[in-house]
Amino acid sequence: MSPSRRLVLVGWLCFTASGVLYLTSAVKARDPWTIAGAAVWLVGVVAFLVALRADQ
User: Fold this and answer.
1) At what angle do helices 3-29 and 32-54 cross, to 10 degrees?
2) pTM: predicted TM-score of the whole model, two decimal places
3) pLDDT-derived band of residue 21, with 50, 70 and 90 as boundaries?
4) Cα–Cα distance, 16 to 49 (Å, whole number)
5) What's the structural domain count of the chain?
6) Residue 39: which domain range?
7) 3-class DSSP assignment, residue 15
8) How far are the Cα atoms of 3, 28, 47, 52, 56 from residue 42, in angstroms, in the given order?
9) Residue 12 confidence class, pLDDT cut points 50, 70, 90
10) φ/ψ of residue 30, rounded to 5
11) I want to staple 38 with a disulfide (CB 3.0 to 4.6 A). Which of 23, 28, 48, 53 is the partner?
12) What is the mean pLDDT of residues 3-14?
């Protein structure tokens, strides 16, 4: 894997971690809109990770 692709992967993994933290906070607050937003965020990140994997 090239250094630039590795950096892109690290960026997407950081976005994934932020989404998990966002979702955890939303569940703790029992806020359905924030839970939905965090879930959509994570689905989007997974889509980008799948696309990144497919481009290899």
Assistant:
1) 160
2) 0.84
3) very high
4) 9
5) 1
6) 3-54
7) helix
8) 25, 17, 9, 15, 22
9) very high
10) 55, 45
11) 23
12) 94
Give the burial string for 9-44 (b: 16+ CB within 10 Å, else e): eeebeebbeebeebbeebeeeeeeeebeebeebbee
Residues 38, 23 contacting (CB under 8 angstroms):
yes
Q: Which tokens hold the place of 50?
A: 């799948």
Is the CB of residue 25 less than 8 Å from the CB of residue 34? yes
Amino acid at 33: W
Token look-up 């990144």 returns 52
Question: Which residue is associated with the tokens 């966002």?
Answer: 22
